[in-house]
Amino acid sequence: MEWWRCLFVGIVLLMATGSGEAQLSPNFYQSSCPNVESIVRQAIQQKLSQTSVTVAATLRLFFHDCFIEGCDASIMVASPKHDTERDAPDNLSLAGDGFDTIEKAKEAVEAQCPGVVSCADILAIAARDVVVLSGGPSFIVELGRRDGLISQAGRVPGKLPGPDFDLKLLAWIFGKNNLTLLDMIALSGAHTLGFSHCSRFAKRLYSFAPSLPVDPSLNPRYAQQLMHACPQNVDPNIVVGMDPFTPNTFDNVYFKNLVNGRGLFTSDEVLFTNPLSRPVVSNFAANQGNFFKAFASAMVRLGRVGVKTGNEGEIRRDCTAFNGS
Ligand code: HEM
Ligand SMILES: *[C@@H]1O[C@H](CO)[C@@H](O)[C@H](O)[C@H]1NC(C)=O
Ligand SMILES: CC(=O)N[C@H]1CO[C@H](CO)[C@@H](O)[C@@H]1O
What we know:
The structure is a single chain. This protein is mainly α. It has two domains: about 25-155, Peroxidase, domain 1 (Orthogonal Bundle), CATH 1.10.520.10; about 165-300, Peroxidase, domain 2, CATH 1.10.420.10. It is about 45% helix and about 0% strand. It contains 13 helices and two strands; from the N terminus they run αααααααβααβαααα. The chain is globular and about 60 Å long. The model is unreliable at about 10-20 (pLDDT under 50). Bound molecules: protoporphyrin IX containing FE (HEM) and 2-acetamido-2-deoxy-beta-D-glucopyranose (2 copies). The site of one 2-acetamido-2-deoxy-beta-D-glucopyranose has 4 residues, from loops. Keywords: Calcium, Disulfide bond, Heme, Hydrogen peroxide, Iron, Metal-binding, Oxidoreductase, Peroxidase, Pyrrolidone carboxylic acid, Secreted, Signal. One of its GO terms (biological process) is response to oxidative stress.
């Protein structure tokens, strides 16, 4: 080999191995905390027996965590000054039960394996578990994430998709997180669970366009139902099920709804109205198995976004506070 090629290969090898870039692995805690998954599952099941809100709240928490600074539990950090990620306006709807679920699971894990398992990994396991416990697909969770050292409300704006996004913007923001169009469509299927406040879609009912108050892509009967549930100037705490038929079950009804003009947000319905994504929506609506497979693989890829490994970050003792604080 010519010397410069040798040098080049050497540098590449060094970059791959020498930078401390560790990989996630399903067996990461095999020797340090072999029962971590069953400890987390038990904590989730117990919380779930108290309130079904846990399911959607935990899944959404994982998504928001990963899109802001990567999957590093930065969303969990609380500060008396109310200036961390969870205090950003975008979080308003992050139900407190999601945070509580992760804190409970962390306490249970700490009791058996103190100082070993990251909050980021507990959140990733918990997100998988709530999907399974509500009827969705199971999958193997990769582990070995470290907890982040940055959590600032000011760094949230622009990192999360909005309910008024079109397909191009959705594809762009998921693309920034190494997720494909297919991943994005599959992950949107999480809206088969949970609730939304009226303010997030009221524009589609009352002020879509100057001469066209109701978004024409809304099924007219669905629009009527939504106006009934969300009259103008409704109490801001009122919520409606994002999948009006089975809001507590993880199934493909979300995609059937889209085909029938029953997507709650513009960002939901556009997946069917845009010809680029429509074939996938139709496929998921007709075949729940295909949706489940795509969702499981997209969740694994979501769980890789911006992860810290090796000796980056820390293993937080308390998920809501940096160790140094
Ligand atoms: C595709 C872009 C997305 C947009 C624009 C979006 C937007 C929203 C909005 C506006 C809400 C309602 C918040 C409220 O007012 O209460 C919501 C709820 C929710 N989202 Fe998304 N989301 C997206 C993707 C995702 C993904 C990828 C996941 C998870 C994998 C997810 C999981 C959830 C869940 C479970 C809820 C219900 C929360 C609850 O009931 O507590 N979303 N989303
Ligand atoms: C996306 O993937 C590239 C290549 O593997 C990686 O360098 C980058 O950090 C990833 N970005 C995120 C946000 O995970
Ligand atoms: C659950 C949670 O932490 N919600 C906070 C979101 O941010 C607002 C301020 O923008 C706080 O008032 C909420 O307590």
